[in-house]
Amino acid sequence: MADAQIANQLPHVTRREDYRAPDWRVPEIALDFHLDPAATRVRATLKVERNGENQAPLRLLGDGLTAVAVRVDGQDAAGWSMDGSDLVIPLGGDAHLVETEVVIAPERNTQLMGLYASGGILCTQCEAEGFRRITFFPDRPDVLSTYRVRMTADKARFPVLLANGDPVAQGELEGGKHWAEWHDPFPKPSYLFALVAGDLVANRGTFTTQSGREVQLGIWVRSPDLPKTDHALHALKLAMAWDEKVYGREYDLDVFNIVAVDDFNFGAMENKGLNIFNSRYILADPDTATDYDYDAIAAVVAHEYFHNWSGNRVTCRDWFQLSLKEGFTVFRDQSFSADQGSAAVKRIEDVRGLRASQFPEDAGPLAHPVRPDEYIEISNFYTATIYNKGAELIRMMHTILGPEKFRAATDLYFARFDGTAATCEDFVRCMEEAGGVDLSQFRRWYGQAGTPRVSATLTRDGGKARLKLEQAVPPTPGQPDKAPMVLPLRVKLFGNFTGRSMCDEQLVLLKDPSTEIVFENLTEQPVLSINRGFSAPVIVETNRTPADLAFLSAHDDDPFARYEAMQQLMLDTLVGAVRNGSADHGPVIEAVRNTLSDTSLDRAFVAEAVLLPSDSFIGDQMAVVDPEAIFRAREALRAELGTALEREWRAAYETARANRFEYSPAAKGARRLKNVALGYIAATGAADAAELAFGQFEGADNMTDRQGALTTLANGASTLRERALKGFYDRYAGNALVLDKWFQTQALSTRDDTAESVERLAAHPDFTLANPNRARALIGAFSVNQRAFHSGEGRGYRFVADQLIALDKLNPQTAAKLIPPLGRWKRFDEGRAARMRAELERIVATPGLSKDMFEQASKSLD
């Protein structure tokens, strides 16, 4: 499609520079719900107050609503009108009581925004702009109100009625109905409103705050799922205690409830006092949840709880400030998780995720700053840049200030902005005031997109060494020229003969395009350890040799830097193999051998360090991605590592073979290394590899080992593969969350026939686009399977585009989030690029396309 045609179709663009304070405020709102899946009646009573000297009418935003009644100060309103989907009421004076009434149909709400039905439960999702699908309201984050909510429903069908805040009263009504009333005394924006009605049971607990108040806790689920909620409840208590200890933040209501639902666009939602979760982030037992699932549940429970202060008590002035709450809270949940187990492994996992999702985002057509300048559909900006890169900005400020000053700064931030809607600038200013630092240049991190690249060159001249550092930020859409950033780089030197530290670690703040640092009194050749702990989210290029990297992988005293050296050695070897057709695998083999034989290392760390970089990360290093060449190079190195170190892999496997399930750092590390070792054994082509995997599959007492074995079999050609896949399906046919794993494992398979297999799975009776988890498990997983997605002369592209067009009609938010793999077309050869672009053009030209999809697909064509 021509650029002019796209421009003519472009919907309204919201720009940060156009922000203005609301014309009217709503200090109080009362909601009365008569709940019914087919026709829910919503009566809203708003106390409105004019904000300032403006003479604007009251504009209440709506989406798909029809006003049944409109009243002002107890009388039928005169002169009100609809402006598109919004209700406009001309009002004189400064304060009024406005009442509206609407009827909505939750059971027909496939977008899963607003009030909708999920497996017989009625629930809400209002972030970012879902409240306007429930009732007319100035649905923006800087309008804060106290809420009083009354719900009436059929008691047999909906015996549990929950809302934000604390319960006030409940009672019985004629005709088998009942009612409940809740009140939240803390002003909040409409996106934090929540309501749940259903046949639910609770895993209950209590938590005593540091001031001695007892808080009633509840994890609400369907009755059969109750035994799977203990881990989530335990994680909640740990998070509450951690937030008191580390940030001094105490919970403020008398109750804290979490509800798990099967159909949810996100991971979870931090609604004040009533968190609503995707069930995959609540339900866990050893038979159905992997170690990764257990960790993710603890992290997400903590994340949503931490939002009570970083997001709820202090919220966002507008949606351009989204990272104010999300980046800060991701940093908080990452720190919490690091404190619960191995901090080194947690950092490795977080950086791997950043590189897998955010770095490609920064390098593609959808690149945007942490604080964006404009959007068409705000739901498209719930991205890795906002969340993960936003967290790295907070981490860098923590590094610059140090722990004590950072804590003083957050105390100042919470005290100053409690009960208000703040901005990213407000947060940074608190860092400056409490930390005694000038962050003027650091603010560029909020406004400039792109991942900075750092060139680090170390040279020695006698007893001196010079480290030359240079930085550059590549052009991104709309930002061709970039100013230098502030890059906090943790640096240290080691002697390559003795292996000892040659200096204390330094924190270098690289602010200029280039700088030079001199190290003196050196007695041997130094080896550079840089960006230790991944202190800045940058790409570092050095003049270190393969021998230097192998040395650091064995001697660096910073765990992340040690891991990074191994990964860089592997990456350089693989990129060289792709470019030259072959590479010397010897240095990698010896480095892996040394790591495997080091008994002082945490087994989880070893498992992470010896894993090869992913196909997609290898492709990110290349100007033109060749999926087949990357796959061949990676498989060749895997096979040689497996063969050369087969004795070591089998020893590692046997050491943990009898490991029975226990959720502890040591047990998780043993399972992780066992499954990595199994993969390398299979890579050798050993005759017993499939039998070994199948034996583990059948004898496993936990999902980590069962899925690890299934993954190994699913990538192979053994006849045991089909037996395992059928056995897994038969065992878990009634469990939707585990079936997601079954779909995903096959979609990520490295086999030649994966594209055909995924097409068959899309016609499977258990596949549905209506459930976001299932769509992500198959379509999302396949689209990031670099080799399979890009095979077959565009077959994978057509399949994904067809699925996204169909999904857009049901759930635009979920569909739009699956666009990015198609949008990376410029990274591939001309043939693949043309076919990917053609599918994007077909999506854009689809009649009735949502704003969500149009924005993502049209930007991807730019």
List the helices and strands and how they pair.
Blueprint: H1 3-9, E1 14-15, E2 24-34, E3 40-50, E4 58-60, E5 69-72, E6 75-76, E7 81-83, E8 86-89, E9 95-104, E10 114-118, E11 121-125, E12 145-154, E13 160-163, E14 166-172, E15 177-188, E16 195-198, E17 201-208, E18 214-221, H2 230-247, E19 255-261, E20 268-269, E21 274-278, H3 291-306, E22 314-316, H4 322-340, H5 343-362, E23 374-375, H6 384-401, H7 403-417, E24 420-422, H8 424-435, H9 444-447, E25 453-461, E26 464-472, E27 487-495, E28 506-510, E29 514-519, E30 526-530, E31 539-542, H10 546-555, H11 559-580, H12 586-597, H13 603-609, H14 615-620, H15 627-644, H16 646-657, H17 665-683, H18 689-699, H19 703-714, H20 720-732, H21 736-747, H22 754-762, H23 772-783, H24 786-789, H25 795-810, H26 812-816, H27 820-823, H28 830-844, H29 851-861
Parallel strand pairs: 2-12, 18-19, 19-21, 22-24, 25-31
Antiparallel strand pairs: 1-23, 2-3, 3-9, 4-8, 5-6, 5-9, 7-8, 10-11, 11-16, 12-15, 13-16, 14-15, 17-18, 20-21, 25-26, 26-29, 27-28, 27-30
Low-confidence stretches: 4-8
Approximate helicity band: 40-55%
Count of individual helical segments: 29
Q: Based on CA inertia axes, which overall geometry fits?
A: globular
Q: What's the number of extended β-strand segments?
A: 31
Largest sheet: 8 strands, mixed
Q: From the alpha-carbon coordinates, what is the Rg to the nearest angstrom?
A: 28 Å
- Gap from first CA to last CA: 11 Å
Strand order of the largest sheet: 6-5-9-3-2-12-15-14
What is the arithmetic mean of pLDDT? 97
Which class do the helix and strand fractions yield? alpha+beta
Which percent band covers the strand fraction?
15-25%
